[in-house]
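We emphasize that the prediction below concerns an isolated chain of 491 residues; any contacts that depend on oligomerization or on bound cofactors are therefore not represented. The input was used exactly as deposited, without trimming of termini.
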Amino acid sequence: MLKSGVHRQIYATIAASMSIFISGMWLGWPSSASEKFMKHQTGDLHVTYDQLSWIVCMMDLGNFISPLFGGYLMDRYGRKMVIAALGPLFIVSWTLTLFVPTTVALYTARLMAGLGKGISYTVVPVFLGEIAGVGIRGALGSVFTIQLSGGVLFEVIVGPYVSYHALNATSAVVPVLFFIAFLWVPESPYYLLKVGRAADAARCLRWYRGCDAESGSGDEDIDATVATELRLMETNVRKDMENGSAIGELFTNRNNLRALAVVVVACAGQRAGGISSLTAYSALILPEPSPILGKFEFIIAFAIVLVVVNFVGLALVDRVGRKPLLIGSEVGLGVVTFVFGVYYFAAEHFAGAAAAYRWLPYACHTTFAATFSIGIGFIPVVFLGEMFPVNVRSRCSAIASVTLAFFSFVSNKTFLVVSHWYGYYTMFWTFSAVNFACAYFSHRYAVETTGKTFLEIQEILDDSVRNGPNTRRKNAKIPQVISYDNPSVDI
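Result of the prediction step, given as a token string:
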């Protein structure tokens, strides 16, 4: 693959996933804004505890609703147009926090942020999966999660050191940059083929592969390779569209149902395995006094680890494979949350003995962030962009987004209630059970997609459905992976 093609795919990935960065900013915003509300550092705006809880929850409501129509919009108007429309949506949401100092405005802003998060979670993974070359598709998909963690980290770091107004003003700049950056990105070739615009699809594919007129490439071999990929795309789209795009196709087609089960379980495990509650309630969970650093410094370190270790996952995902990273991450989280539970059980029943191990939950806290980020934190997004045919890809993406929102909401709403009545250890052992169960399911039913074209992945799913999980057809006649998708090749 031409180096310029790799660079263009990276640019498009970063530009599109800036919408996820903004969503992460809105997720991290309450951690800084809540303290300012309670200390009356928000000017003329004053809120009660009840109003603050509604401000926080409105984002979950928007996130739950928007995937239901986000999938329809990206099939009706295109991936690019829907992602670009998130720019004005997020600009308005942050503007409300700056110029309308009322609780109703904050309810509206958080609701809009949730709508944007749900749409971006639905559309961006599909877009990234469709524009990326096979050899770097996993790495580009992992950028999605890096951006989300980066947005949370931005708010956690900036928020404590600036005023409420300055925090919102700084945050409002990011969606403007996102909108300007993404306008230059072409549409997905798969979408253009789906709507019968073959010439436009060819032009966009040549841009993404770095062999258009602007790149200065006149290599006939490269042009022929891109033409071959375009023909494979056309074959793939034509075959997929023969089955229709109704949501029922997800459940009547056994390949789609297998892929949907893998993605939904991975998404449920990602949110119900502990990350949502640790992100929201770390300040309450971690015991006092903290070792070495202050409690809030550990919370900042948690957010930093989420970002940094994502880069390790980015480096490994196309070498080690999706399935090993996913299973290893889920098993690791199961162990970490079990140890978390052991500490809190001991702290409640053997307080004197547990006092000497007050460092243990802090070690688990940081280890959880690293284990989460290297696997389950981003693998579901990668699977989402790879495992579904184009005719149902938008429907699957919407279901995955709703799953993430639902289990995040359930985890956050039940954590404090259950912990109050039955102890923190009950919730952590529940998280542990969820993580181990998801690891077993992934081992049993997930398929390896590393280095596979969309056609190859569908063949593997077909074999898995007909012959049982963990099987592969030995003599399948599958098109070879196009060589220029190997990012290590210099041309």
